[in-house]
Amino acid sequence: MPYNGWRTGWVTAAYVCVFTLITQTLFLPVEAGGATGSQPQEPASLLSLGEQQFVSERKEGIRNSLQSLGMHINADSVPHIALLGSGGGQRAAVALLGSLQQMGQDDLLDTLLYMGGVSGSGWAMASLYTDPQWSTNTAAALARLTQPGPEVDDIMAWLKVRSEQEDFSLSDLWGSLLSSSIMKQMDRTRLSDEAKRQTTNPYPVYSALEQKCYLDGQTKGKWFELTPHESGFTELNHFTPTSLLGQRPSDSGASEGEKGVEGGKEEVMEVMGVEEEVMEVMEVEVSGMDMVTLQGIIGSAMADEQKMLAHLPDWLKNILDIHSSPSEGAVDSQERKTKVDAWMEKVLKPMREGLLALPDGPVKDVVSWVVLKLLPLITEWKWGTTANFIYHSPDEFIPECLRSTENLQLVDAGLFLNSPYPPFLGARRDVDLIISLDFSLGQSLESLTLARDYAVEVGKPFPVIDDTVLEEMDWPRDFYVFPGGRSAPTIVYMPLFNQRNCRDAAEVKSKMAEYTTVQMPYNQKKIAGLLKIAMDNMKNNKNKLMLEMHSAAVRKQERRS
To answer: Is the pTM of this model over 0.70?
Structure first.
């Protein structure tokens, strides 16, 4: 249906309500935080059977790709290379697409085994994986950025269906806004669908935080990874089949507390098609999270109430009577809830009464949805609601913040660490080379040092970071190499704005301001300019990247001998 008539009016009103309350913080800049410490290193868990099979098959293609680039690689020394995209809203989404486009043109894309994303980079990944063959045609995703987005009716149809589900949250609303306005699609493809595809593309690993454990200060219960085969807690080694993510244990025939690593392996094998007949006999319901909800979760920086409130305009703070405490510099969450609840009740009461006066029909249906489904979510401020597959688990190593809660609250991982290092550290994926693309708004190299601190905290190997390079934070080079060792991966770090494309630190700041996250979707000119910057960064460093790929293969061979 075109954008006209009464229905569009009500739909627009629904979106205005949300934009008024939360979209003043559109694409909030995410600043990571972290802590240092030391804990014994835990033994690595096995990968899912599906991922193991993918890795085995993909490495054959990687070896061929490296050989075509002039590297003679033995079958047992194919390096595990992971490309990581940082957060950074639409700046990160566009820049990652540009980087991948150039890697494809330079024949480097097929050397990647893994791809990981946080926040904005994750939006781009979710958009790319709509196409099972995207790595052979990255231009299609780039072209979509400047095309019209989905019709309002299409967005509302998805939201109305989603809102009938028990775990409907603000992440779903946010995901529909991000997906339709930035990535220009409403993709119903499910993350678990990728499990049945070929190995044409790198294996995707998305990242989120479990909000309650993060706020509780837990180390091992906060980082949550999502892959086509399994999703779960990186450091706890507890996972569930991604096709069953969001289902409660009773939904799939398991009792509470039985959905850990061990209980999910057979289901993963069934979902990936290895024993499809068994799956059909058992009538396991395969569903899981779609890409719209996924984008809402991994991009939900606004789930951080304090950060969101700090960006609200004064006029809205006055309406809600919410102001930061001068002594503490933060709004008490209970105070916020009480005041917002009172304000929302003033708004909702006449709207509920008005519903009674409306005749039955489409108008009443839309108004009812806004009043009864949408606006109450704002008072609850719940994001990323997902059934907790380890609820009431008997495992004593699971923190109380997980065992005692029926639902997980999955939010933007960039609130803690704005680049997805955790899933690629340690022996589990045995990554030899990490190519880290930093599109963050904050100081360059910050996410790298925070990742180092995290690695210390969880007892995983990490390259030595020479503190002298931190003096270049304001005006970084375009290419850094932090050599690994027998157990630590080598990290190539590439900041978006750098000494090669900016004259000085002042121009870096100027570029950051030009492509800030706090603005409406970029126009065609801005998209083209940012794509060129990202593509040039990759093009200028092609030979250096190839050298590090070869070095990673040599190190792997030396470890094997």
So the answer is: yes
